[in-house]
Amino acid sequence: MSRLFALTKRELSAYFFAPVPWVLTFFFLLLTWYFFQWEMSQAYVQVTYAPVFMALDFILMFLVPLLTMNSVAEERSRNTLETLLTAPVHDWQVILSKWLGTFSFYVTMLVPTLVYWAILAYLGYDIHKPDAGPILTAYLGALFLGGLYIAIGIFASSLTENALMSAFLAFFILITMLSIGVLPFMRESAPSWMRDTAEYLSQNLHFAEFLKGRIDAYDVTYFVTLTAFFLFLAVRSLESRKWR
Amino acid sequence: MPAIEVENLTKRYGARIAVDQISFSIEDGEIVGFLGPNGAGKTTTLRMLSCFQPATSGTARVAGYDVFSQSIGVREATGYLPESTPLYSEMRVFKYLWYRATLKGVPRRNRRGYIESAMARCDIGDVRERIIGHLSKGYRQRVGLADALVHRPSVLILDEPTSGLDPNQVRDVRDLIKEIAGETTVLFSTHTIPWVEQVCERVIIINQGRIVLDGTLSGMRKQIEPWARVEFRTSMDARPAMDAVRSVAPIFFVENLTVGDRTTLRYLTEKRNLEATRAQVQTVLASAGGAVENVNVVDAVVEDLFTKLTRGSEQIVGARR
Ligand SMILES: Nc1ncnc2c1ncn2[C@@H]1O[C@H](COP(=O)(O)OP(=O)(O)OP(=O)(O)O)[C@@H](O)[C@H]1O
Ligand SMILES: [Mg+2]
């Protein structure tokens, strides 16, 4: 336990002391702010800030690969993988700590967006109170979504020692998953089992449920399973050094 | 029970065999120098012993644990310094060692004490708050060593611990290894015999993936007693002169020692045929249009045995020193 904690702490501090994650945080907040103020400028009354979240699966598709690209690839390229993996730690601890560290940083990226809630409350006075339910489930969905993206990013990073290559790979996986859910031919002409599978595998429909204020075991299972699956692949890819 | 026990250990990279069925055994508390030229298979062997890479076939046990099936046990008992001394360059020295000690399972109450004594041993106390990436190569090497030592392992595996160090620091590492002798088993790789001679008795020499010698320095000294080094000058160019000398059968190898414009060569041969060999050398050089001058005969040194064993048939040597 103390090992997993030490690994995670180092991971997180690597994010805190590098410039790139903060640049990404800046862009993240800029983009969410853009969607938030766009919504505020509409004529109707707002009780949530759903557009911010609706754009999230798209925004994170660019941001998360850039956040995770170094996680394993850099250890490989500067050989620290050799000291890391010859310490008495399990491969799964290494991968899990990378996920936990990145996820914690992602949470710190999300925290400032709570300001939008405060703004909403302030603008609505006592008449239009923000609807806490859908906002909270949206945040929960954002955590699941980010967790999945990070697992995919770490998996991609574990495959190569080239950080940009790993970012591109993660982006490719994410955009593939996103598109199978929205491609029209998948919706109409394809056989129903294929359509169902595509819709199940794609993240956006599951995520959309959270934005509607619903927490369904079906969607939670989707995120948890797929996140675990990609982390499992990352562990295997770390182990694969043994067969080369 | 031996601290390290290797049996028919083999590593292939595709069709290339990097380590070819090596076997050796190292007793508790022994210090062993692992020697070989570039590409001999030293790093590959040490990586298998430290559980970074598995063997293609064969077995190895370290501190009583099997490197494949009980790798966590091996890793707890072993301190390993990889060849390139990889470190997190953005971390500070003390923080880094704290992190490493935690990973290696040093209990919290002992951690500070263990780190302090590792830092004292490696003489890095004065850089404890410095960022690793800002340190000189020598200091980084010593931080790597401190990391290898920090959990007080019973076996130390060091891959070229003195690379990149200045002569004073090389001496410090030598003293450090001698200091931990007895309590710890040490297997270290290096290219230089003279350094090994100052540190330990036992030597394993590997060449092209195979062990060509496993013995003691005194045994090696015995082996070189009947050999002699013959050094001479000639007006010829180095390359044709070397080719000529090489054609003389009883010569083990020729080295080019030329500094400046006067060709100086040295060859190794047996003392018992010394006169005949020298005459032959004179003849082949004469027929190539050169003369042998300033001949100087001395006893062979241990390094000559290393050169003889690892050079094989290639005998390609450039100017040295
Ligand atoms: N990952 C790899 N893939 C393919 N071949 C490799 C790999 N690692 C090492 N080799 C080959 O295995 C052989 C042994 O290499 P190794 O690094 O063990 O030598 P070494 O004795 O440590 O050399 P040096 O003194 O230069 O450090 C070399 O021929 C090398 O090219
Ligand atoms: Mg090496």
Your description of this structure?
The complex is a heterodimer of chains A (244) and B (321). With 244 residues, chain A is mainly α. Chain A has one domain. Chain A contains 14 helices and no strands. The longest helix of chain A is centred in the middle third of the chain and has 27 residues, at 132-158. The mean pLDDT of chain A is 89. In chain B, the strands form 3 sheets. Chain B has a 6-stranded mixed beta sheet with strand order 6-7-8-3-9-10, with helices on both faces. In chain B, strand 4 (57-62) and strand 5 (65-66) form a beta hairpin. With 321 residues, chain B is of the alpha/beta class. Chain B starts with a strand and ends in a 10-residue tail after the last helix. Chain B is elongated and about 75 Å long. Residues 313-321 of chain B have low confidence and may be disordered.
Topology:
The complex is a heterodimer of chains A (244) and B (321).
Chain A: H1 2-16, H2 19-40, H3 50-54, H4 56-68, H5 73-77, H6 80-85, H7 91-110, H8 114-123, H9 132-158, H10 163-182, H11 184-187, H12 192-201, H13 203-211, H14 217-239
Helix pairs in contact in A: 1-7, 2-4, 4-9, 4-10, 7-9, 7-14, 9-10, 9-13, 9-14, 10-12, 13-14
Chain B: E1 4-13, E2 16-26, E3 31-35, H1 42-49, E4 57-62, E5 65-66, H2 71-77, E6 78-81, H3 93-103, H4 108-122, H5 137-149, E7 155-159, H6 167-180, E8 185-190, H7 193-199, E9 202-207, E10 210-216, H8 217-224, E11 227-234, H9 238-246, E12 253-256, E13 263-270, H10 274-287, E14 293-299, H11 302-311
Parallel strand pairs in B: 3-8, 3-9, 6-7, 7-8
Antiparallel strand pairs in B: 1-2, 1-4, 4-5, 9-10, 11-13, 11-14, 12-13
Helix pairs in contact in B: 3-4, 4-5
The complex binds adenosine-5'-triphosphate and magnesium ion.
